[in-house]
Design a protein that fits this description.
alpha/beta, binds guanosine-5'-diphosphate, 5 helices, single chain, 200 residues
């Protein structure tokens, strides 16, 4: 898929403010600093569609972008930033969980994970929660240029091993680098196939 147009639509602090759910949407979520803005900009082929965060954890809104007038790309707030207060974290988790549960046109969620890290308990818990709630999702391993292929393979295998304990079939895995432009084709192909299948 070629991205011909990418327009910012709205920043929402509540699910009710999001655009009418008339088009399929694909949302990106991950810990602050995981490389989400960089990945979104790489996918869209724009330098600063999503703001690369100077202050981690700053974006607390749901940002909608309309791509090719056909589907929405959604930038969800980064989670797990330690400097936020507990009450802020709770409000914030509520925003994310209510978006994920309520958004009827959510075709797929992409969970971003830093490929340098071994599986973290919180991320695994979030993945289990997605499964329990039957949310379609894929896992995107970011910043692969920063890690040797042997470390990356071992981290990916650790994820597979953990997930196999409770999942019959594993979600799609994507390996990406915004610096090297890796993974763009695969993610856009996954999105265009999903958009097509929804039309059938
Ligand atoms: P966000 O907080 O998840 O939106 O993360 P950003 O996209 O703002 O990236 C956080 C930091 O990681 C920035 O300094 C980026 O330049 C850097 N970064 C993001 N993606 C990559 C990548 O693929 N490779 C490398 N080497 N650095 C990256």
């Amino acid at each position: 898929m070629k991205i011909k147009t990418a327009e910012f639509v709205i920043s929402s602090s509540k699910v009710e403010q999001c655009p009418a759910p008339g088009k399929p949407e694909f949302a990106f979520i991950g810990r602050s600093n995981v490389g989400k803005s960089s990945l979104i900009n790489m996918l869209a082929g724009r330098k600063s569609l999503a703001k690369i965060s100077s202050t981690p954890g700053k974006t607390k809104l749901i940002n909608h972008f309309l791509i090719n007038n056909e589907w929405y790309l959604v930038d969800l707030p980064g989670y797990g930033y330690a400097r936020t207060s507990k009450s802020e974290r709770i409000a914030f988790n509520q925003l994310i969980t209510s978006y994920i549960i309520k958004r009827e046109n959510l075709a797929s969620l992409f969970l971003l994970i830093d490929s340098r890290h071994k599986p973290l308990k919180n991320d695994l818990q979030f993945i289990q929660w997605l499964g329990v709630n039957q949310v379609p999702f894929g896992i995107v391993f970011t910043k692969t240029d920063k890690v040797s292929s042997s470390v990356m393979d071992s981290n990916l295998s650790a994820y597979r091993k953990e997930l196999k304990k409770t999942w019959d079939s594993l979600p799609a895995f994507f390996t990406t680098s915004a610096v090297k432009g890796i993974g763009k084709v695969e993610i856009l192909e996954f999105i265009s196939n999903t958009v097509l299948s929804l039309k059938l």
